[in-house]
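Workshop exercise sheet. Pairs work together: one partner reads the sequence aloud, the other fills in the structure field after running the prediction. Swap roles for the next sheet.
Pair: D.N. / O.F.
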Amino acid sequence: MNILSKIGNTPLLKLNKVVESSDAEIYVKCEFMNPGGSIKDRMALRMIEEAEKSGELKPGGTIVDQSTGNTGPALAFVGAVKGYKVQLFLPAQLSSSYDPADRIRIAKLFGCNVTTIDLQDHISNFDELSDMERAAAFVAIRMTQCYQLGVSDPSFWWANQL
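Structure field:
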């Protein structure tokens, strides 16, 4: 048995005081208690196992993806346990309310190679963009980089979470 077998085996907790009076019982699944600490551990494991089965991800290969949240660290965790290298593209800063520093630190703790992208280096009118426009631009830039890696080197498998 290895730690990956513990993914998804997180507790259900009954909430007793969600609403004042209700006949419904409300439970929450504590996905944050996955071994990698991410609510996306289950998804990352499934994606990687499917890529292994299909032959898209080969032993010694590298997992590549772009992320702004929980999927990147989850891919880094599962990839590390399975012996893969992981390359992630993460934002240096996406909006005034989002700081990816914790996600970057977590991914690096699992041995992941993280490339941060500063949108201001790619978009001349960055300050004029809304948060939604910045997010869309960032996804487009990262997806292009992931695609280029996947095309240029067959040992790279692009998880392509979107």
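Discussion prompt: The domain at 40-158 is CATH 3.40.50.1100 (Rossmann fold). What would you look at next?
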